[in-house]
Write a structure and sequence with these properties.
Elements: E1 4-9, E2 12-17, H1 28-43, E3 49-54, E4 58-60, H2 65-71, E5 94-98, E6 101-103, H3 105-112, E7 115-119, E8 123-125, H4 139-147, H5 149-158, E9 162-163, H6 164-170, E10 175-177, H7 182-194, H8 198-211, H9 217-223, H10 228-234, H11 237-247
Parallel strand pairs: 2-3, 3-5, 4-6, 5-7, 6-8, 7-10
Antiparallel strand pairs: 1-2, 8-9
Helix pairs in contact: 4-5, 8-10
Length: 264
């Protein structure tokens, strides 16, 4: 990998965008590297959480237009922009640890994650209309769903840049911390998630996201037994281990596998 770094520790895969001189702008080659990295994370039963962050003073400034111009058009990988924005088939959690500017495609990467932890100096925007473009990486759809129509339209139609504090107020950021505390805060969130059954976490994420596509709460509840991660949890050792550990007054020993042995 030339443009990203991958670190794995304690069930957490950290993918660092590593082009700090260009504010970690995404090149055509980088799309393929990220696709491969996220594919490996999704397939590894030992890895439960993926953290995405940036090197230097930026999270991601979006697409590197100079690299695109030099290399010509290249189709996005199977899971879309950055190998992430169309990754609808992975029930494991993704966390964006935003350390600086998250513009355009960079903001869309963050919005595609399940949680956003932001440093105080971070800022966010979909500035495409300012240069005659349209944000095509899911940001238009995700932002409206995550913060509501009117606040989203305010950002989208003006290309307005908002601070981390404003993003927290709007509701697309989970926590804002001092710049020097971003890594520790992200580790804290990971530790809290890792206390839970991985089968329960996956089933919960999948049920929320798929349920939003159902026409009503009643329809979502009726359909959830058919969701793959939910069905895997239902037949998992973890579903029995939790009540057993509670009754025996001991910490649970999660296996992270269904009754058939499948991790998902």
């Amino acid at each position: 990998m030339e443009n990203i770094r991958i670190d794995m520790a304690g069930g957490v895969t950290t993918v660092t965008l590593a082009r700090p001189a260009s504010l970690n702008a995404i090149t055509p080659v980088m799309h393929d590297e990220l696709e491969a990295a996220f594919n490996a994370f999704a397939a590894d039963p030992a890895q439960e959480i993926c953290v995405i962050t940036g090197e230097g003073r930026g999270f991601c400034a979006g697409s590197d237009l100079k690299a695109v111009a030099a290399g010509g058009h290249r189709a996005y990988p199977a899971h879309g922009y950055a190998g992430l924005i169309e990754r609808f088939d992975c029930p494991k959690p993704f966390i964006a640890a935003v350390n600086g500017v998250a513009m355009g495609g960079g903001f869309e990467i963050a919005l595609a994650c399940d949680l956003i932890i932001a440093a105080e100096s971070a800022s966010f925007a979909l500035p495409e209309p300012l240069v005659g473009a349209v944000a095509l990486g899911g940001g238009l759809h995700r932002l409206a769903r995550q913060i509501g129509m009117k606040p989203a339209m305010g950002m989208i139609l003006s290309g307005k840049r908002v601070s981390a504090e404003e993003g927290h107020r709007l509701g697309f950021i989970n926590e804002v911390v001092a710049d020097g505390d971003l890594s520790a805060a992200t580790q804290r969130w990971c530790a809290e998630i890792l206390r839970c059954s991985p089968m329960s976490v996956r089933a919960s994420k999948e049920t929320v996201l798929r349920g939003l596509d159902e026409p009503s709460v009643a329809a979502a509840m009726a359909a959830q037994d058919r969701y793959p991660a939910f069905a895997a949890w239902r037949s998992s050792d973890d579903a029995r281990e939790g009540p057993r550990a509670f009754a025996e007054k001991r910490p649970p020993r999660w296996q992270g596998r269904s009754h058939t042995g499948d991790p998902q």
